[in-house]
Amino acid sequence: MKDQVVDILRRNHLSVTDSRKVILDLFLSHAHGALRHSDIEKSLHYLDRVTIYRTLQVFANKGIIHSIPNSEGAASYALCTSGCQEGHHHDDHVHFICTVCRETTCLDNVHVPRISLPAGYETNKVEMVITGVCKKCRT
Questions:
Q1: Does domain 2-138 have CATH number 3.40.640.10?
Q2: Which of 55, 83, 98, 109 is disulfide-compatible with 90, CB 3.0–4.6 A?
Q3: What residue segments make up the domains of the chain, in order of their start?
Q4: SS3 of 11, please?
Q5: What residues contact 115, with CB distance under 8 A and at least 6 apart?
Q6: Cβ neighbours of residue 131 under 8 Å, at least 6 residues apart?
Q7: Cα separations in angstroms, 134 against 33, 35, 70, 100, 109
């Protein structure tokens, strides 16, 4: 996975730093799930909050990760699909937040339905978040 991390950073014209490598590696190990800033802080307690925040912003701007809103006003972040690139996210899948364990999952095969807006409106971004109980918590 280390080679994949370096490849992603280089492909996106980013410096290969230790903090970027460990944060991206953490995302790759949670490929279908999302991470909150606090999750990253707990996992990588030796990195300061500002470094994590800036790295998340750079990754989001480059199309490596995307943000997922939640009802608490704090975003979670997940890896982007291969269609994303700098400045253009194409994460048209549904996100599921479990009300029991609070885990956010990208449902890559469940797409956001196409919405026709009235004349004069233009879509910039569509986000669909579903809450409920995940299959782990149901058992």
A1: no
A2: 83
A3: 2-138
A4: helix
A5: 123, 126
A6: 71, 96, 97, 98, 99
A7: 12, 16, 16, 8, 16
Is the pLDDT assigned to residue 24 strictly greater than 90? yes
Percent of the chain residues topping a pLDDT of 90: 42
Three-class DSSP category at 136: helix
76/69 Cα distance (integer angstroms): 7
What pairs with residue 66 in β-bridges? Answer: 78
In whole angstroms, give the CA distance from residue 19 to residue 114.
38
Whether residue 84 has pLDDT greater than 80: no
Q: Dump the DSSP string for 55-77.
A: HHHHHHHHTSEEEE--TTS--EE
- 112: closest CA among 126, 131, 97, 98? 126
**How far, CA to CA in Å, does 18 sit from each of 15, 46, 52, 99?**
10, 12, 12, 34
Residue given tokens 């797409």 in the structure block: 111
- The whole-angstrom separation of Cα 80 and Cα 83 is 8
